[in-house]
Amino acid sequence: MRKAITVTVNGRACAREVPIRLLLVDFIRDGCGLTGTHVGCGHEGRCGACTVLIEGRAHKSCLTLAVQADGKEVTTIEGLGSRGLPHHLKRAFRRYHALQCGFCTSGILMNAVDFLDENINPDEEEVRRALIGNLCRCTGYSHIVEAILAASAMRHGLKPEPPPAETEPPP
Ligand code: FES
Ligand code: FES
After folding, report:
1. pTM to 2 decimals?
2. What would the pLDDT profile of 74-127 be if each residue is shown by its tens digit?
3. What tens digit of pLDDT does each residue of 141-171 get?
4. Ligand 1 in contact with 108 (CB < 6 A)?
5. How close is the Cα of 64 to the center of ligand 2, in Å?
6. Is the minimum distance from the CB of 49 to ligand 1 under 6 angstroms?
7. For 40-69, what is each residue's pLDDT tens digit?
8. Burial, 35: exposed, middle or buried (Cβ in 10 Å; 0-12, 13-18, 19+)?
Protein backbone atom coordinates (compact mmCIF):
# COMPACT_ATOMS: atom_id res chain seq x y z
CA MET A 1 0.00 0.00 0.00
CA ARG A 2 1.30 3.48 -0.92
CA LYS A 3 0.48 7.02 0.10
CA ALA A 4 1.29 10.43 -1.40
CA ILE A 5 3.09 12.60 1.14
CA THR A 6 4.73 16.03 1.18
CA VAL A 7 7.44 16.70 3.72
CA THR A 8 9.18 20.06 3.94
CA VAL A 9 12.85 19.15 4.26
CA ASN A 10 15.23 22.03 5.02
CA GLY A 11 12.61 24.48 3.77
CA ARG A 12 11.89 22.70 0.46
CA ALA A 13 8.80 20.63 -0.21
CA CYS A 14 9.62 17.02 -1.00
CA ALA A 15 6.55 15.26 -2.46
CA ARG A 16 6.61 11.54 -3.16
CA GLU A 17 4.32 8.55 -3.27
CA VAL A 18 5.80 6.13 -0.74
CA PRO A 19 5.10 2.69 0.70
CA ILE A 20 3.35 3.25 4.02
CA ARG A 21 6.07 1.28 5.82
CA LEU A 22 8.93 3.36 4.40
CA LEU A 23 11.16 4.75 7.14
CA LEU A 24 11.78 8.47 7.30
CA VAL A 25 15.55 7.94 7.11
CA ASP A 26 15.15 6.12 3.78
CA PHE A 27 12.79 8.83 2.52
CA ILE A 28 15.38 11.48 3.40
CA ARG A 29 18.37 9.64 1.95
CA ASP A 30 16.84 7.96 -1.11
CA GLY A 31 13.76 10.10 -1.77
CA CYS A 32 15.26 13.52 -1.12
CA GLY A 33 18.90 12.68 -1.89
CA LEU A 34 20.17 14.03 1.45
CA THR A 35 22.78 11.55 2.61
CA GLY A 36 24.16 13.47 5.60
CA THR A 37 21.67 11.59 7.78
CA HIS A 38 23.31 8.24 8.48
CA VAL A 39 22.14 4.72 9.26
CA GLY A 40 24.41 3.19 11.87
CA CYS A 41 22.73 0.43 13.84
CA GLY A 42 20.47 -0.73 11.04
CA HIS A 43 17.09 0.65 12.05
CA GLU A 44 17.18 -0.41 15.69
CA GLY A 45 17.17 2.99 17.39
CA ARG A 46 20.43 2.42 19.26
CA CYS A 47 23.06 4.65 17.68
CA GLY A 48 21.42 8.02 17.00
CA ALA A 49 23.26 8.52 13.69
CA CYS A 50 19.92 9.04 11.95
CA THR A 51 18.68 11.85 14.21
CA VAL A 52 16.85 14.72 12.50
CA LEU A 53 14.57 17.50 13.70
CA ILE A 54 10.84 17.15 13.12
CA GLU A 55 9.07 20.41 13.89
CA GLY A 56 12.22 21.43 15.75
CA ARG A 57 12.47 18.37 18.01
CA ALA A 58 15.05 15.60 17.69
CA HIS A 59 13.78 12.25 16.42
CA LYS A 60 15.51 9.08 15.30
CA SER A 61 14.43 8.85 11.69
CA CYS A 62 14.94 5.07 11.64
CA LEU A 63 12.13 4.77 14.19
CA THR A 64 9.78 7.11 12.33
CA LEU A 65 7.70 6.29 9.28
CA ALA A 66 7.85 8.73 6.39
CA VAL A 67 4.05 9.00 6.44
CA GLN A 68 4.26 10.26 10.05
CA ALA A 69 6.21 13.28 8.77
CA ASP A 70 3.59 14.12 6.12
CA GLY A 71 2.84 17.86 6.25
CA LYS A 72 5.66 18.51 8.72
CA GLU A 73 8.94 20.43 8.73
CA VAL A 74 12.05 18.25 8.87
CA THR A 75 15.56 19.61 9.30
CA THR A 76 18.60 17.51 8.47
CA ILE A 77 22.29 18.23 8.90
CA GLU A 78 22.33 19.83 5.43
CA GLY A 79 19.85 22.44 6.66
CA LEU A 80 21.86 23.43 9.72
CA GLY A 81 23.40 26.80 8.88
CA SER A 82 24.86 27.46 5.45
CA ARG A 83 28.19 27.03 3.74
CA GLY A 84 28.93 30.73 4.18
CA LEU A 85 27.67 30.88 7.75
CA PRO A 86 27.88 27.48 9.48
CA HIS A 87 25.63 26.91 12.50
CA HIS A 88 27.35 27.81 15.79
CA LEU A 89 27.37 24.13 16.83
CA LYS A 90 29.18 23.18 13.64
CA ARG A 91 31.73 25.94 14.28
CA ALA A 92 32.23 24.73 17.86
CA PHE A 93 32.67 21.10 16.75
CA ARG A 94 35.34 22.20 14.32
CA ARG A 95 37.07 24.47 16.84
CA TYR A 96 37.13 21.83 19.59
CA HIS A 97 38.02 18.87 17.32
CA ALA A 98 34.81 17.09 18.29
CA LEU A 99 34.82 14.55 15.48
CA GLN A 100 37.10 12.01 13.93
CA CYS A 101 35.47 9.76 11.31
CA GLY A 102 32.33 11.94 11.45
CA PHE A 103 29.84 9.09 11.08
CA CYS A 104 28.02 9.93 14.31
CA THR A 105 28.40 13.69 13.95
CA SER A 106 25.27 14.66 12.05
CA GLY A 107 23.06 12.82 14.54
CA ILE A 108 24.86 14.30 17.52
CA LEU A 109 24.60 17.81 16.09
CA MET A 110 20.86 17.50 15.47
CA ASN A 111 20.32 16.12 18.96
CA ALA A 112 22.43 18.96 20.39
CA VAL A 113 20.36 21.60 18.57
CA ASP A 114 17.21 20.33 20.26
CA PHE A 115 18.99 19.97 23.61
CA LEU A 116 20.39 23.53 23.59
CA ASP A 117 17.00 24.93 22.55
CA GLU A 118 15.58 23.41 25.72
CA ASN A 119 18.55 24.04 28.04
CA ILE A 120 19.89 27.59 28.20
CA ASN A 121 23.05 27.01 30.23
CA PRO A 122 23.60 23.26 30.75
CA ASP A 123 26.41 21.76 32.79
CA GLU A 124 28.68 18.90 31.72
CA GLU A 125 26.55 16.24 33.41
CA GLU A 126 23.42 17.39 31.57
CA VAL A 127 25.23 17.36 28.23
CA ARG A 128 26.57 13.86 28.84
CA ARG A 129 23.09 12.66 29.77
CA ALA A 130 21.66 14.22 26.59
CA LEU A 131 24.14 12.19 24.53
CA ILE A 132 23.09 8.81 25.92
CA GLY A 133 21.22 7.97 22.70
CA ASN A 134 24.14 8.88 20.42
CA LEU A 135 26.99 6.42 20.02
CA CYS A 136 30.45 7.59 19.01
CA ARG A 137 33.14 4.96 18.59
CA CYS A 138 36.01 7.38 17.95
CA THR A 139 36.22 10.40 20.20
CA GLY A 140 35.63 9.29 23.79
CA TYR A 141 33.04 12.11 23.96
CA SER A 142 35.17 14.64 25.88
CA HIS A 143 35.66 16.98 22.94
CA ILE A 144 32.02 16.61 21.92
CA VAL A 145 30.88 17.65 25.39
CA GLU A 146 33.36 20.53 25.40
CA ALA A 147 32.10 21.73 22.01
CA ILE A 148 28.44 21.62 23.04
CA LEU A 149 29.16 23.53 26.25
CA ALA A 150 31.16 26.12 24.28
CA ALA A 151 28.41 26.45 21.66
CA SER A 152 25.89 27.08 24.41
CA ALA A 153 28.06 29.72 26.06
CA MET A 154 28.83 31.43 22.75
CA ARG A 155 25.18 31.47 21.74
CA HIS A 156 24.12 33.26 24.90
CA GLY A 157 27.06 35.66 24.94
CA LEU A 158 28.56 34.05 28.06
CA LYS A 159 31.79 33.41 26.21
CA PRO A 160 33.32 35.00 23.10
CA GLU A 161 33.71 32.76 20.09
CA PRO A 162 37.33 31.57 19.90
CA PRO A 163 39.22 31.89 16.62
CA PRO A 164 39.05 28.89 14.29
CA ALA A 165 41.41 26.05 15.15
CA GLU A 166 44.84 26.49 13.68
CA THR A 167 46.00 23.94 11.18
CA GLU A 168 48.88 21.79 12.30
CA PRO A 169 52.18 22.98 10.84
CA PRO A 170 53.79 20.49 8.47
CA PRO A 171 56.37 18.19 10.18
S1 FES B 1 20.18 4.14 12.58
FE2 FES B 1 18.68 5.14 13.79
S3 FES B 1 19.34 4.91 15.82
FE4 FES B 1 20.82 3.82 14.65
S1 FES C 1 33.57 10.50 15.20
FE2 FES C 1 33.62 8.43 14.50
S3 FES C 1 31.86 7.51 15.41
FE4 FES C 1 31.93 9.51 16.26
Report:
1. 0.92
2. 999 999 999 889 999 999 999 999 999 999 999 999 999 999 999 989 999 999
3. 999 999 999 999 988 777 767 666 655 444 4
4. no
5. 23
6. yes
7. 997 789 999 999 999 999 999 999 999 999
8. middle
Please name the residue whose Cα sits nearest to atom 2 of ligand 2.
Answer: 101
Q: Which domains does the chain have, with CATH numbers?
A: 2-79 (3.10.20.30), 88-155 (1.10.150.120)
With a 6 Å cutoff on the Cβ, whether 60 touches ligand 1 is: yes
Sign of the Cα torsion 81, 25, 120, 151 reads negative
β-bridge mates for residue 83, sequence order: none
Phi first, then psi: give them for residue 79, nearest 5 degrees: -95, 5
Give which of 64, 67, 52, 63 is closest to 17, Cα–Cα.
67
